[in-house]
Every structure is written in C-alpha cells, then in structure tokens.
C-alpha cells in the first residue's frame, strides 16, 4: 500500500516505470488521507515502528472533525453541498511540480473520485475532506477553487488540531483515517526505517 491508498497490485496494473513509483513516495510528505480516490476510504491504519532513525521521519496528524466543528456557522453554510474532485494526479503534481510529461501521463491513468467537501457520517458527525488529493471544487473557477481548498487545508492543520508523533522502536499508532489527515516529516533517502502497516477496510461511503 502506498501513501494514497493504492494497493501494490494496483500500482503494478498501471505499469508505472521505476522512476514514477519512486516519485510517489514524496507525496507522503503532504497532508492526506489514505484512499481518498476510492468510494469508501480506508477506516483506520495501524503503524508499528520496527526500525527508526534518530533524525526525521516523524508523523503529524490533524483532526478534521475538530477543524470542521471550529468553523464559523456562516462558513459551514457556504461549504454545504460543495463537491470536490480528488485525484492521484493532483497529489503528485503538488509533490513533484517539475514532473515530466511521461510522469504526468502515468498519474492520469488512476481514476478520479468526486466527494462532498464536508463528509457527513450516518451518526451526523462531520469532517472536512481535504488534503493533497483535493484537486478542484466543481463549479468554481480554478483560482477560486484552489484558494478555498488551500485555506481549508491551512485551517485544518492549525496547531490546535495537530498531534506530532516522534517514532521510537516498538511504537504502535492507530488512527481513524476517515477523520484525520496525516503526513510524514521529511527524512534522508539513506535513513534506515522499517514500519509494519495494517489497514482496516472502510465501512461507510463518503456522503
């Protein structure tokens, strides 16, 4: 499984060359939820540290439930009903702005997914569905769309909504992928790391 929720078999099916699959990893340094380009994103992730380096590679988590709850009522009303196109290409373009045309064509092979900007659960709880995969708001001009999505991502990742975890060998972290953005902090390519990951399948469609 890569940072945006594509399984290994899916990566192989797209027949990406090695330089593309290596570039995908850089997207892990951007705020995202896993599986945003699926109808049903993964429910939760369990990550265990087997080997870690002393420098870099920490993980940050941002609570998008709290971020939505803290919005002013008029802003909640403005966001209600907005639809956002999520794509692997949007995330990779942000992580690799100088990508070649060949790389961009490879990203475009992954289907896009349209989700509501505000995810309403069956129990009524709401969260913001933003992050690196959020490419455009349907019906908005590109510049207006980008401004809105960037401002909501900045809001969702304010210090009061963020937890910073510094990994130690043996740590186990479990998070609700559906209501939490996450990102890895940068580390050197030579940094030795071994992380074991388990993903719980999603149970509720984005609605």
Kindly report the oligomeric state of this protein.
single chain
What is the CA-CA span between the terminal residues? 25 Å
Strand order of the biggest β-sheet: 9-1-11
Give the low-pLDDT segments.
Answer: none
Q: What CATH architecture would you give?
A: 4-Layer Sandwich
Write the CATH fold name.
Answer: Double-stranded beta-helix
* Chain-averaged pLDDT: 87
Give the count of helical stretches.
Answer: 7
The CATH class turns out to be Alpha Beta
Question: Which series of helices and strands comes N to C?
Answer: HHEEHHEHHEEEEHEEEE
Q: Which structural category fits the helices and strands?
A: alpha+beta
What count of domains describes the coordinates?
Answer: 1
Portion in helices: 25-40%
Count of DSSP E strands? 11
At the fourth level of CATH, the homologous superfamily is Clavaminate synthase-like
Largest sheet: 3 strands, antiparallel
What portion of the residues fall into strands of 2 or more residues?
25-35%
Rg = 17 Å
Overall geometry comes to: globular
